[in-house]
Amino acid sequence: MTPSEKKLVFRTVLATLLVLMIAGVVGGYAFMRTGIYNISATSQHLQPIYSILEKGMHYSVRYHAADITAPPTDDMQMVKRGALTFHGACVQCHGAPGVAPHGIGMGMQPVPGPLVESAKKWEARELYWIVRHGIKMSGMPAWEYRMSEEQLWEVVAFMQHLPQLSPAEYKEMTRSEDAR
Fold it and tell me: Coiled-coil annotation: which residues (predicted)?
């Protein structure tokens, strides 16, 4: 293949990709303008949409939390204080061991998941970033203006211990006066 033929092939590929990209943007905009896609809180996203949003959220959290240094989170007093904060702010939507989410949490789309698996899915710095900044379009609020830095890390410490807690331990932890 001559250099001029290679150049023609390159330009053709580039032009084709550009046309496809423009067609995708115009098609997406036209689809959005129809209003056909149901955005109500009573229906879930289509699986491909949900998968894309979920994967994008994971990449975004990991990127934005990369420079955060987590303090030690294994102090049981810190975990107990985090349990009390969690009980007051998070249990309504996420539930806890032996505690079902309240109606407000069950009426959201996407439904807030139980956080028992969160310590397996996320590092401490990533949990901190999520609790502090929230997640757009999910109902997960940003707690940075409602909780102190210390409380944010206490909630993270609690979430890391959540998988090991029984309902009785959670109940005792959130009732205990010495945790305050």
Answer: none
C-alpha 155/C-alpha 159 separation (Å) is 6
Q: What's the one-letter identity of residue 138?
A: S
Backbone angles phi, psi at 65, to 5 degrees: -95, 0
**DSSP-derived secondary structure letter, 142:** -
Question: CA separation (Å) from 154 to 21, 31, 87, 159?
Answer: 46, 44, 12, 9
- The predicted-structure confidence for 65-99, as pLDDT tens digits, reads as follows 999 999 999 999 999 999 999 999 999 999 999 99
Query: What's the length of the chain?
Result: 180
Beta bridge partners of 135: 140
Question: Do residues 156 and 82 lie in contact, with contact meaning Cβ atoms separated by under 8 Å?
Answer: yes
Ramachandran bin of 104, using left for φ above 0, alpha for ψ from -120 to 50, beta for the remaining angles: alpha
In which residue are the tokens 């806890």 written? Answer: 96
Q: What is the pTM of this model?
A: 0.80
- The reply to whether CATH 3.90.79.10 applies to domain 55-179 is no
Give 99's strand partners.
96
Q: Give the gyration radius of the chain's Cα atoms.
A: 23
Q: pLDDT digits over 90-144, tens only?
A: 999 999 999 999 988 888 878 887 788 888 899 999 999 999 999 988 889 999 9
